[in-house]
Design goal:
The complex is a heterodimer. Chain A is α/β, with parallel strands linked by helices. Chain A is built from 7 helices and 9 strands; from the N terminus they run βββαββαααβαβαββα. Chain A folds into 2 domains: 1-73 and 154-232, Rossmann fold (3-Layer(aba) Sandwich), CATH 3.40.50; 84-152, no CATH class. In chain A, strands 5-6-7-3-8-9 form a 6-stranded mixed β-sheet, with helices on both faces. Chain A starts with a strand and ends with a helix. By secondary structure, chain B is an all-alpha fold. Chain B has one domain (5-264): ABC transporter involved in vitamin B12 uptake, BtuC, CATH 1.10.3470. Helix content of chain B is 83%, strand content 0%. Chain B has helices at 5-30, 34-54, 58-76, 83-104, 109-117, 125-154, 156-162, 166-188, 193-204, 211-236, 240-264. Chain B is globular. Classes of the chains: A alpha/beta, B mainly alpha. At the A-B interface, loops of A face α6, α7 and α10 of B.
């Protein structure tokens, strides 16, 4: 496992009209880190993720990918998807959607192989041909994860991706993410409200509160601390 | 039947239309744009009426109005909560304009009927060639942007978080849709264009589980509807748009029934 930095936030701040979301955020994330980002609703967790993804321009400070943007490939798993029971694609086809680029409309042999491998990796190989609209909540969440992983990212963002899952399915999914984190040196940013899960799987934490941010090794994060932070 | 030139032209045009509608329809369904497609067809009616008023070919009037308005409609309906209201307002305005242009052009009701419900006998070899070029243009653009359009249409959230150029894709797709509406209106008419742009793909959705599979099935269903509709229209002398509408609706309801049976099992 390397300890080289992959992402650096320098004096980062985002202000919406008359409303500072967060400010003066400094953070260095290394390859292989499993960082939980916690804090109550409205403190700017998703705004921070959008800023990291360069979908939102910071009001001050900057986000730097290291050594440069060409060496950082991001996979992002959001909490919600609009997939109803009639959704026509199989899990396999859904995962392959993420293979974009100015290429032929159909997937190449190598790309098909990449999809098959990630389905195997995420435990979805046996149900690859099942319409995703008919898959369970846990299977769908794994398919979203597989889609994010199919392009072999080195930075994975789970944006409250486990929020709607039952405890068993949540553990199953996070076990898988932890295994990939350790085996492939995959850096993980885990946005969550679930402090026990954050403590179980993460190595570091970043807590956003209305008065500012706090960070450190995960052992320092307690439910009491989060409550105190929220009640400032 | 094929000894008549107008029937040969109608079959050639119908085949082109079925292919383009089957392929575009898959994206129309995936992007929930059935209502917008209906609006574009009404705008097409207005454009054709303007073409007649200005002394142009109706297809050129349709192309002008649908392409320009598709971009405006796309911008106005970008926010989903106001999509239906904005689309309805535009639809009403353009139907009114269509009637005004027809009135100004001093054309009788048969012109309006022909534009609204389509016509088999009015298609010349030159029309077929123009439709072919326009359809090829649509197909080439779809081919080039296929992977991006597929991702954005079937998983908009995923495409957006990946940073794909989803706004530009949406405008490009609306322009392609406008071209397809103008082409397809030549046979089924502007009022019934959404039949071919929505029903075959909506039916295919229940049977196919890949985007490619949906397209093949949608094109097949559109071809059956158009070919069979033309034959029945020739034999009975009733309007082709009635037969196409009835066949495609039958396929759709059969698919719904099949789906219900599957769910019940």
């Amino acid at each position: 496992m390397t300890t080289a930095p992959i992402l650096k936030l320098d004096n980062l701040g985002v202000t919406f009209p008359n409303h500072p979301v967060f400010k003066d955020l400094n953070l260095t994330i290394n390859h292989g880190d499993f960082l939980s980002i916690v804090g109550k609703n409205g403190v700017g967790k998703t705004t921070l993720m959008r800023t990291i993804l360069h979908q939102l321009r910071p009001t001050h400070g900057r986000v730097t990918y290291l050594p440069d943007a060409n060496h950082v490939k991001i996979g992002y798993v959001p909490q919600f998807r609009n997939i109803d029971a009639d959704y026509p694609l199989t899990i396999e086809d859904f995962v392959g959607l993420n293979l974009t680029g100015w290429k032929w409309p159909w997937l190449s042999r190598t790309e098909h192989q990449a999809v098959r491998e990630i389905l195997k990796e995420t435990g979805l190989a046996d149900i690859a041909k099942r319409p995703i609209g008919q898959a369970s909540g846990g299977e769908r969440q794994k398919a979203y994860l597989a889609q994010a992983l199919v392009e072999a990212p080195n930075l994975l963002i789970l944006d409250e991706s486990t929020a709607s899952l039952d405890p068993v399915t949540k553990t199953d999914l996070l076990d898988l993410v932890q295994e990939l984190n350790q085996r492939l040196d995959l850096t993980v940013l885990f946005v969550t409200h679930d402090i026990p899960m954050a403590r179980k799987y993460s190595t570091e934490y970043l807590m956003l509160t209305p008065r500012g941010a706090e960070q450190g090794p995960i052992a320092g994060l307690t439910q009491n601390k989060v409550w105190e932070g929220e009640n400032v | 039947m094929f000894s008549y030139e107008f029937m040969r032209n109608a079959f050639a045009a119908g085949t082109i239309i079925a292919i383009i509608c089957g392929i575009m329809g898959v994206f129309v369904i995936a992007r929930n744009m059935s209502f917008l497609t209906h609006t574009l067809s009404e705008i097409g009616f207005s454009g054709a009426a303007f073409g007649i008023f200005a002394g142009w070919a109706p297809l050129n009037g349709m192309l002008l109005f649908t392409v320009v308005s598709s971009v405006i409609v796309g911008q106005l309906s970008a926010r989903s909560e106001r999509r239906e209201a904005a689309t309805s307002a535009i639809s009403a305005l353009f139907i009114g304009l269509g009637i005004l242009f027809l009135s100004l052009a001093n054309k009788n009701a048969s012109y309006a009927t022909s534009i609204l419900f389509g016509s088999v006998i009015g298609i010349s070899a030159a029309d077929v060639r123009q439709m072919l070029w326009l359809s090829l243009l649509v197909l080439i653009v779809i081919f080039v942007i296929y992977r991006f359009l597929k991702f954005d249409s079937f998983d908009h959230t995923g495409a957006r978080v990946k940073g794909l150029w989803t706004n530009s894709l949406s405008i490009i797709f609306l322009v392609l849709l406008a071209l397809s509406v103008s082409v397809a209106a030549q046979i089924v008419g502007s009022l019934l264009i959404f039949i071919l742009l929505t029903l075959p793909a909506a039916t295919a959705k229940y049977f196919a589980h890949t985007v490619g599979g949906m397209m093949i099935l949608a094109v097949g269903l559109a071809l059956i509807g158009v070919w069979l509709g033309l034959v029945l229209s020739y034999v009975t002398n009733y309007p082709v748009s009635f037969f196409i509408a009835a066949i495609e609706a039958l396929f759709y309801f059969a698919a719904l029934g099949w789906q219900k049976l599957q769910t019940a099992e």
